[in-house]
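Please, structure for the following, as tokens.
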Amino acid sequence: MSDSALVIEADPTVTEHTCARCSQPFQRVQGYVHRDGDAHAVYIASCYHHDGHEVFIDAVFSRTWEDAADDHFTFGCRVGQVAGQSDPGASLTTGATAFTHSPFFGRKLSREEAIGHPLIGDFWALVDHILVRDPVVRDHVYGPGAEFA
């Protein structure tokens, strides 16, 4: 899938929160992503200030987006500093662990479930797109004014 086919909605919601782990403030971004003009995913990016600048990205995918449909799958990952690397790395986590159960999240995939899921490629393409195209997430991970070709 090409990155150019993905488009983040014009004004994702940015909210301020306090981290339950370290009591520091953090921002959370929630937005919709379209692929070729159709609803593709909803992402929630929580930008924390512990362990350097890390972000947990959860993404919900659905074939129908109907409220009664049982077709929602949630992936999760952490993006941040990794020992021995100069650039941030991404690793799979269980999806939406910071959130209570809700039909919106559907099935929260574990790392093991996500690795073998047919949408894993779509998830990584979405994460790459968010890291480059969402200014709050990009600036949090790479620093203010970071630009990518």
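The longest strand covers residues 25-35. The mean pLDDT is 91.
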